[in-house]
């Protein structure tokens, strides 16, 4: 039982990235940080672990393992209590210090280089396999803090187990780097590619595609389970390592070529990459490079975590920059769709900024869905709400002639007090809805006066000229799917480069290992008495090539064509609502095109800048022009 508790704690410390990855998207939102910030949540842990492991292996004594387990548990609770990213990162560093001492002791306690080798390796594999599911369940049922709370009892349970387990605590010199430089390089590169794959995939599923944490956990669990299956494949170590790295490269490359935003499309790439991981890691750590002593184990673990840290440091800014660029492009493309929709000009010019002003890189799809839902509710209210429409008319009158006391005019003309009038107007909502003519006639009859006929007729003309809300609702429903496609295309484009770079790391690992394949009489000899041979290596290379090729073909066939941002200086075809509103629309959009052309901007950038403060500041920085009110721009453009 003591060995099981120690193995669980060691497996948790080694599978940290798999467990904590599911906490990263909610951390991104709750702590108001960036992609680089959440990458640091893993990178700080792995970086400190890479430095501390060799020292812990050299200084390990009877009580250091228990002290490390206690520190790991305490720091886990502190991580769960953190209210800022800075504090969380400090606690993650302390957690890594505890994990380093824990792992050094656990290797000796489990005899990881001898009879307990299977338990030592199995702990790491089991922890990695169960990590995504554990993180997803805790995040879905509770929140991201529960992931850290759950680690504390496991660390605490290991304290008495380590103190009660007899182990050799012979002091060692600081571990030396592995002599096989190419194999060491391949291990570091492959470790970085694996963590990048998990990190990017979790962010893509939860923050990019808005998949629920539990569903995302189920999806990414395919990777470690496939790795577990791949670990049973036997054959020469060099052959397994090269073939495994090729499979990992091919699987990650597929994720750079996703055709649709569905977790199902990630299954085959994860199977390919997972089998490759299960083949390559045991061949590298323990066979091509020995892991018989505490020092050797610490050196290999340090090498793996250094590769993870450097990869995250390199890739996180790439993902962040790509997300910012692509989300901004999505806002413009979405605005282009709205401006080309068959909606009244005032509606569409105001609608685009309302839909896209709050869309940021942390969860763009959910932000768009929320904005569309708000617009549908707003249209539904305007469909029935006399008073809100009167208030809008008052604002319009106030802008036109400085007088907006429409209710006051009605009270005076109809000879009723404000309370009675408002009650009557509210009563018309349920009875007539958008049928203003019938509603106003009924109001006049019920008040028993004809004195307000001209005023009521004017009111009917002003309010009744708006487009039927049913048309607006239909157009919003049509736009919803198209706008969602625009956002998803932006998300996929933002992650594609990072996935491609991660695939390149795995490919470089395979290339680094090629010299390890035995040569005899000028030819590569891969055959063995049992297990993998040249045919298997060729098959792995073929699978790593054909699956990405298939994904590339599917992407080309299934992806939607991106919305084009038209040149505002050129004539364009426009969808119109027809009638008077259509003529007004033509004049308004032509005026905006001319203004944007004068500034050297796109029409979409200008519309966003008119109603969104952040876009306005960005517009001014980019073009040296401060966007004014819509009326001012229209006047200047029409007079051009």
Overview features:
single chain; mainly alpha; 2 strands; 640 residues; 1% strand
Structural class: mainly alpha
Helical residues, percent = over 70%
Q: Any idea what the radius of gyration is?
A: 32 Å
Kindly report the spatial arrangement of strands forming the biggest sheet.
Answer: 1-2
Q: Which residue ranges are poorly predicted, with pLDDT under 50 across at least 5 consecutive positions?
A: 519-531
Give a structural overview.
The chain has 640 residues and is mainly alpha-helical. The protein contains 27 helices and two strands. The chain has helices at 2-14, 16-20, 24-30, 35-59, 64-81, 85-110, 117-141, 145-164, 181-208, 213-220, 222-230, 237-255, 267-284, 294-339, 345-356, 364-384, 386-401, 406-414, 418-432, 436-447, 453-464, 469-513, 534-558, 579-599, 603-611, 613-623, 630-638; strands at 519-520, 523-524. A two-stranded antiparallel sheet has the order 1-2. Strand 1 (519-520) and strand 2 form a beta hairpin. Helix 5 (64-81) packs antiparallel against helix 8 (145-164), helix 14 crosses helix 25 (603-611) and helix 15 crosses helix 25. The N and C termini lie far apart (84 Å). 49% of the residues are buried. Mean pLDDT is 78; it is low at 519-531.
């Amino acid at each position: 039982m003591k060995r099981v508790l120690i193995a669980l704690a060691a497996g948790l410390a080694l599978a940290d990235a798999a467990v904590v990855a599911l906490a990263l998207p909610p951390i991104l939102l709750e702590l108001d940080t960036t992609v680089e910030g959440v990458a640091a949540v893993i990178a700080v842990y792995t970086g400190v672990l890479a430095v501390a492991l060799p020292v812990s292996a050299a200084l390990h004594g009877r009580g250091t393992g228990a002290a490390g387990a206690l520190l790991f548990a305490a720091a886990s609770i502190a991580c769960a209590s953190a209210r800022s990213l800075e504090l969380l990162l400090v606690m993650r560093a302390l957690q890594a210090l505890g994990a380093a001492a824990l792992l050094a002791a656990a290797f000796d306690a489990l005899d990881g280089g001898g009879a307990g080798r299977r338990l030592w390796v199995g702990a790491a594999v089991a922890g990695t396999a169960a990590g995504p599911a554990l993180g997803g369940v805790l995040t879905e049922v509770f929140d991201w803090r529960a992931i850290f709370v759950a680690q504390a009892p496991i660390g605490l349970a290991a304290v008495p187990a380590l103190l009660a387990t007899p182990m050799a605590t012979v002091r060692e010199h600081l571990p030396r780097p592995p002599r096989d430089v190419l194999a060491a390089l391949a291990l570091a590169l492959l470790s970085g590619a694996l963590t990048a794959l998990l990190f990017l995939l979790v962010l893509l599923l939860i923050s990019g595609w808005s998949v629920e944490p539990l569903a995302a956990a189920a999806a990414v669990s395919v990777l470690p389970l496939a790795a577990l299956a791949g670990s049973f494949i036997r054959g020469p170590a060099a052959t397994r390592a090269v073939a495994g790295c090729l499979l990992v490269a091919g699987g990650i490359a597929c994720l750079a070529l996703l055709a649709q935003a569905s977790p199902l499309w990630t299954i085959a790439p994860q199977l390919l990459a997972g089998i490759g991981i299960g083949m390559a890691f045991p061949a590298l750590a323990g066979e091509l490079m020995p892991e018989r002593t505490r020092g050797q184990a610490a050196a290999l673990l340090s090498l793996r975590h250094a590769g993870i840290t450097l990869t995250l440091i390199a890739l996180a800014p790439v993902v962040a920059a790509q997300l910012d660029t692509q989300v901004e492009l999505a806002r413009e493309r979405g605005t282009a769709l709205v401006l080309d929709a068959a909606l009244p000009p005032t509606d569409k010019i105001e609608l685009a900024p309302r839909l896209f002003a709050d869309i940021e890189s942390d969860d763009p799809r959910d932000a768009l869905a929320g904005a569309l839902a708000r617009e549908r509710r707003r249209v539904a209210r305007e469909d029935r709400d006399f008073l809100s429409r009167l208030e809008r008319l008052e604002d319009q009158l106030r802008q036109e002639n400085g007088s907006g006391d429409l209710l006051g005019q009605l009270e005076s003309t109809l000879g009723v007090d404000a309370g009675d009038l408002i009650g009557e107007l509210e009563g018309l909502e349920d009875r007539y809805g958008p049928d203003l003519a019938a509603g106003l006639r009924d109001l006049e009859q019920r008040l028993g006066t004809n004195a307000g006929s001209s005023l009521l007729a004017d009111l009917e003309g002003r309010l009744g000229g708006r487009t039927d809300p049913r048309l607006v609702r239909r157009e919003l429903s049509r736009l919803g799917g198209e706008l969602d496609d625009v956002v998803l295309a932006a998300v996929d484009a933002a992650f594609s480069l990072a996935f491609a770079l991660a695939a390149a790391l795995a490919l470089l690992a395979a290339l680094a290992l090629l010299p390890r394949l035995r040569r005899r009489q000028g030819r590569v000899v891969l055959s063995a008495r049992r297990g993998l041979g040249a045919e298997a290596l060729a098959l792995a290379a073929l699978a790593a090539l054909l699956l990405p090729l298939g994904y590339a073909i599917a992407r080309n066939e299934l992806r939607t064509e991106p919305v084009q941002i038209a040149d505002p200086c050129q004539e364009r075809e426009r969808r119109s609502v027809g009638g008077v509103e259509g003529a007004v629309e033509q004049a308004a959009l032509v005026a905006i095109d001319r203004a944007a052309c004068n500034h050297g901007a796109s029409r979409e950038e200008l519309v966003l800048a008119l109603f969104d403060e952040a876009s306005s500041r960005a517009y001014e920085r980019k073009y040296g022009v401060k966007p004014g009110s819509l009326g001012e721009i229209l006047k200047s453009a029409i007079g051009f």
